[in-house]
Hints:
By secondary structure, the protein is an alpha/beta fold. The chain contains eleven helices and 14 strands. The protein is globular.
Amino acid sequence: MKKIFLTVLMTVTVSALVISGCAKKEETGSSASPAASAVASDNTGKDFKIGMVTDIGGVNDKSFNQSAWEGLTLLKKQTSANVKNLESKSDADYTPNLNQFVKDGYNLTWGIGFLMGDAVKTVATQNPNAKLAIIDNVVEAPNVESVTFSEQEGSYLVGVVAGLTTKTNKIGFVGGIDIPVIKRFEAGFVAGVKAVKPDAKIQINYTGAFDKPDLGKAAAATIYNDGADIIFHAAGSTGNGVFNEAKDRAKNGKKVWVIGVDKDQSLEFGDEVTLTSMLKRVDSAVLRVSKDVISGKFQGGKVVTLGLKDDGVGLPETSKKNVSADILKKVDEYKAKIISGEIKVPEKP
């Protein structure tokens, strides 16, 4: 299917949701960030219901799923739409959770994550009058809008940061499940590191999970023990364990860095260990498509791919805290070359 590139992406600044305690199977949109709280609703969505089903990472993963939920939280603030999420504890929950929203008459049902592709396809086919959307996968159905990202482009830029920052010349990458979207993160990151530090040693470790912080911590420990001083993770809540390992080492006086993913993870884990993050504007994408449904402009059957030129991926402003001005200038140079097409970032390692 021909990919349609979004030319304008609404810039949305959403502070991190802080949710304590055990995650529930079902949550409503009552929690909002300070930035969202200041937005006056126009009530255009008061008669609309938008549902979101997460993959196995959970809504409080501090990265991918949480970013998507923040998009719906802001939608509620801006339009008074009714929003709800259902967490999937295993892949067996995907189809039942999607069907629950469809049967309850939701105007749009989101499937968040590559792993939900088959379930979204099944539910869309069985319910041709329902509107669905998916992040990180392409579902070819007339009632599904697919949103993907050029993760490799943003990952290239944080690779440049890592290559120019490392003092040991050893860098790590911790991935979740070995799927195409995570491979794009890996490919772009490695290419970016090698562009500025060709002789750098990069250690790759896939944990096989998006919801196992203990596996992320163990993977990080192995990589740091081998001499790496920077790790980029693309592993959902498994990546929280990478941060935990870095923070444990910081307590013992050892300086190591983590590059976050999807959200500005310095807001979650602090500047002490967060070098920068590879922003992936899932929140903005969820907000835009959901607003399209409310305004009657839903693009069923289309694919939107968001990259650097769309502000769909990139680095947060907080990068200035730990990344030097000279390195950020170099990042801007590479960004311009990627946008112009001078540099074609690989999608596969």
